[in-house]
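User: Okay, second chain of the day. Same drill as before: sequence in, C-alpha cells out.
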Amino acid sequence: MGVSAQTMQSTRAIPKGWLVTRDWDLKFITLSVVLVPVPYLVYLLILQLDPVIGPVAGAVGTTVDDLSRNLVNGFVALVVGGPHMYATFTRTALDHDFAKAHTRLIWSSMIVPVVVIALALFNLPLLLTIFFSWASIHVLHQVIYITELYNNRREVSLSAVERYADYAVILTALYPIALYKMVTGEFVIGFHDIGAQVETLVGYVGLSMGAWLYMLGGLVFAGALSAWLLVTFMSWRAGTLHGPKTLFVALTVTASFLVPMLGNLDTAFQGMNFWHSLQYLALTWMLNNVRQRRGELDNSPMVKRMSVDRSERRFYYFNVMMMVANILYGVTVFGVLYVVFGKSFDFAFDRSYYIAVLSVLWMHYYQDHYLFTDTHVIEGKKPQPQAVR
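Assistant: Same drill. C-alpha cells below.
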C-alpha cells in the first residue's frame, strides 16, 4: 500500500482521473480482481489431496470437503477478512475529532453486539440470513463509494443518467444467478440453506419463491446492463469516457455475476471477500494518509502514527492485533457456553464464533454506511456528511 509523499501530493495533477496513481489503483482497486477465483481454486486443489487430507478430516470428525472449505475460509479471514473490519475504527471511534462530532453514531453502534448475541443464541439461521444479505449490500455499497470517488476525479461533469446507470448495473449483477440458486435450493453456505430462510421471510408478506423471482432478477439486470453499455458507448463517442472508473465497474460487474455460478458458494464468496477486504484496507490507509497530511488527525496521535508515509505495515499489524484480541473474546464466550452452561461443543463453537465475528463485522457495516457518504474525502471538499450527534 506504499504511496510516497510526492505521489500523494501530485494526485490532483493526474490527467486520467486515478484515485492515487495508475499503478496503485490497478494494484489495489481494479486488477486485484484476479484474487477473486483464488480461494475457490485453492479449495479445489485441497480436494485433490484427499489421500493426505482424508485421515486428518476423519481425525477431527469432518469430511474432506468441509475441512477444505474451512481451511480456505480461515486463511482469508486471518490475512485480510478479519483485519479489514477493524480498519473502520481508525476513521471513527479512534479518530477523536470524528468521535466527538458523531457521538450518536458511535454509541448506537453498541446496540449491534446485543442484537448479534440474541440472534446467535436464539435464532442462528435468521442471524446468518441477515448476515449474508447485509454483507452483499455492504460490498456493493463499497463499490458504489469507489465509483463516486472516481467520479470526483472526472475532468467533466457527470450526468444523472450516467450515475444511475452505474448504480443500477452494480446493484443488480450479483442477484440473477444467486436468486436462481435460492429458488432451486442450491444456495447453501456451509450447512445452512439460505434460500429456505428467504422463503420463510418472503412468506411473511404472502408470497412464495418461484421462477418469477430469478426471472425478475435477470430482467432487471439485463435492463441495467443494457443501459450502462449504452451510456458507456455514448460517453466514449463524446470523448468523455472515464477510463479508470469504467474499467473498475466492468470488472466488478463481471465478477459479481459469475461468482454465484460456482459450486461451493461459501468458498466462492470468499473470493469476493478477499478482493473486497484488500480494497478496503488499501483505501482506508490511503484516505487516512491524505487526511493526516491536511492535519485532520493531529488530535488522534495513534491513528496519525499509523497514517504517515510508509506506515502501511504498522496499520496492518494493528488491525491484525485487534483481530487476535477478538479471537480471545470468542474463546472466552466458547468457554462460558461449553463449560459454564454445559452446551454441546458444536452449539458453543458456532455461537461463540458468530458472536465474536459478527459483533465487530456488523459494527463495521453500520459505520461504513455513514463513511461511504463522504465521497469528497480525498479532495477535502465540502459538503461533508452532516454530523450525527
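DSSP finds 18 helices and two strands in the chain.

User: Thanks, on to the next one.
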